[in-house]
Specification:
A hairpin with a 7-residue loop joins strand 2 and strand 3. Helix 3 runs parallel beside helix 4 and helix 3 packs across helix 10. Helix content is 32%, strand content 24%. The radius of gyration is 20 Å and the shape is globular. The chain has an eight-stranded parallel sheet with strand order 9-8-7-10-11-14-12-13. A seven-stranded mixed sheet has the order 2-3-4-5-6-1-15. The longest helix is centred in the middle third of the chain and has 19 residues.
Length: 336
Amino acid sequence: MRALEPVWLTFLSGSDIEQLPIDDSEVLDAVERGLRAQGHGQTVVEPRVHLTPDPAFNGHFNVLRGYVAPIGLAGVKIVGDYVDNYRSGLPSEMALLNLFDPRTGMPVAVVDATALTEMRTGALTALGARHLARPDSKVLGHIGARATSYWNVRLLDRMFDFTEIRVHSRRPESRRAFADRLERDLGKPVVVTPDWRSCIEGADIVVEASRLERPEPLLRTEWITPGALVVPYGTMSAVEPDLTDVMDKIVVDDWGQARSGPFGALRAHVDSGRLSEANLHAELCQIVVGDRPGRESPDETILFWHRGLSLSDIALGAVLLEKAGEHGLGQRVRFS
C-alpha cells in the first residue's frame, strides 16, 4: 500500500492578521465577490446553527457553513457570542474559520476569524447601504459599540463622508471609548448620545447593533425618518413589531437564514408572519447582480436585515490567506 503524501495546512493567528496590509477597499471587494457568487447561483449557504452550552453562561456559539465556487473553497466558522465577556476583558465575539478544498475535503487553513468577523460584518452593512441608502445620506445614528460596530461606521463613512455621526451603547464607558476611537481614526467629531432616541431620530442611516440580553423594543418606529435606511442586526430584537409596516422595501442577506433559528432582530416578525417571502423585496445578492432593484427613489424607507453570511467569511478569509502567503505570515502545520 502506497504511503500517503504529507498534508499541510496554514494557521493564521490574530497576530498574523494584524500585520497584514489590507485596506478598506480590499475588504469591501472580497465581501462583494461573495455576494456576486451568491447572486449568480455559484454558492451553497446553509442556515447557521447554534449551540448553547448552558444558559447560565449568557452566551452561545454560531456555526456558519458555506461554499463559494469561484473561490474554490468551502468553509465552516464557529463564533462565540458572549454578552458578558467585557467583564473579563475579552471580546464578546471570538471565532475560528476552517477552510477546506471542496473537491477532496482536505483542510486548507485554520484562521483566527475574530477580526475577520468584524470586518466582513461592517462590509456587509456598508454594501447594503451602497444600494439601499440615499446617496446624499449625511447623518448616521449607530446603536452599539461592539467590535463589528467599528467597521460599520468606518466603512459607511468611507462611502458617505457623514457630516454627523452619532453613537450610543448600553454602557457609558463603552460608548465614549468607541467615539474616541472613531474620532482618532476618521479624523472627525463623533457625537455620543445619552439615549436611543437622540441617536436615531432624524438620521439618514440607522444601524442597530445592540447587545441585549432579551428582546426589548428600544428602537421606536416613530423615530425613523421617512426615506431612511434602517439596518438592525442585533442578536436579540430591539425593534417594535410595526417597524416592518412603515418600510417600502425589506431586504435580507439570505432568506434561508432569516426564516430559521431562534435569534435575530426580526425573529418575531418572521414567526408572526409580518415578514415573509410575500413581502420580502430581495436578498442583497439579487440587487448586487442587478436582478432586483435597490433604492429607486429618495422617499423610500428601507430595512436591511443581515444575519451574517458564511460566504463573506470564506471570501475574506481567502484574501487574508493569499496576502499572508505574499508576506511570509502564518504557520505551516502538518495535518497528517
